[in-house]
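Before the break, one more example. Copy the sequence into your notebook; we will annotate it together after we see the structure.
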Amino acid sequence: MGGWHNVYSEGLLFAVSFIMMAVSLSVIVGELLRDSGGNNLVIASVFHALINLGLLLLFNEESGNSSAMAIISIASLAAALAVIAISMKQRREILKLSKNLLQL
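Here is what the structure looks like once it is written out:
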């Protein structure tokens, strides 16, 4: 997370919410990049651009609105938890399939 965002001057709630959003979005993009096959920069850049565009069009967190940032961070956390749950389920299925194939 870059210091150029200057989130700390907007208050504690805004800063904590921003950090929670940044970590949650990092988890999501990390899962997107897991099997990207070398196209990491393109995927990360498009993801970042879409997040920024959505923030600009839908929220007013740029003005330091803590409640908008809190809503965004909660939504990001929920999405990250869903991504983790889906990823874990897929990995368990792959592991189960691998074990079954090894037993043949």
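The mean pLDDT is 84. Helices lie at 12-34, 40-58, 66-103. Try to locate both features in your own notes.
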